[in-house]
Description:
By secondary structure, the chain is an alpha/beta fold. The protein folds into 2 domains: 5-106 and 293-311, NAD(P)-binding Rossmann-like Domain (Rossmann fold, 3-Layer(aba) Sandwich), CATH 3.40.50.720; 108-284, 3-Layer(aba) Sandwich (Rossmann fold). The chain is built from 11 helices and 12 strands. A 7-stranded parallel beta sheet has the order 8-7-6-9-10-11-12, sandwiched between helices. A 5-stranded parallel beta sheet has the order 2-1-3-4-5, sandwiched between helices. Helix 4 (108-123) crosses helix 6 (158-169). The radius of gyration is 21 Å and the shape is globular. It starts with a strand and ends in a 10-residue tail after the last helix.
Amino acid sequence: MPEKVKILVPGDDPVQIAGSPQLERLKPWGEVKLYSTRPQSTEEKIARARDFEIIINTRGIVTWREAELRSLPKLRMIALCSIGTDMIDLKVARERGIAVSNQPGRTAPVVAEHIFGLLFALAKNAAFQTAELKAGRWTRRMNATVQGKVLGIVGLGHIGAEMARLGRALGMEVLAWTFNPAPERAQRAGVRFVELDELLRQADVVSLHVRLTERTRHLIGARELGLMKQGALLLNGARGAIVDIDALAASLKSGHLGGAALDVFPQEPFTGPHPILECEQVVFTPHAADQTPEGIELLNEGAVENVIAFLEGRPQNNAAV
Length: 321
């Protein structure tokens, strides 16, 4: 086995990998240093990581931008406990030869289950009616039926495909839009590909599952929200910046949309103030779609396996290529 390396968990808050048996698998390979608090500045982040060759980034709120990456000459690899890579400057990582290994599709069933849970909570006005009852008011509101409706999926990756499977199981008609449509993908997922505008016009429920890139930032803005059906529901389990949240709040307040369920926000933590927090027909979770015991351990296992694969000379899932 080659010389042992130094491995850093730079800010495991909230707890993700601390106490996981997966960390024991790294002992033959090197020393693991885990910080249980987030770095409070770029300088602190660099100071923590300066002597380490490998980072296991357990929380997306800990970001690695150009300033940090150019200040860490020993860094060779970042393993992510996530599917998304938007917390890393991939261009600089690529330039510097730093492998960035994510986990595409690993928790897709866990995430899709959560987003479908948000759909039911939204359709049945669960958050609003719970708040009313807690306030001592018996306020009944007309709920929405989900079965037999049209589900529009924006982005047919692993999570989008799992959403399609769950939608079909409910008897929903499933439409999808992607940058890379192909007949075999449509057949495999049991969907019909349409243009984005057509999907927005036809769907009773629109669920977002695209990566955040410059092409998808504010993919859903005021124009796109205006195309959606009166009373339609919007779900965002992708990234907060996919949606123009100001336009979304305006659409909800005007009564055009029937509701929105968000697990992701343009800034996280998202504590407001913001007009969307004043809307009644919303359901929120704090970027928690994969936060089940099974989901967390799947991600811990995947991150450690990516580290070991890299150290064995067979890097996998490298997004910085």
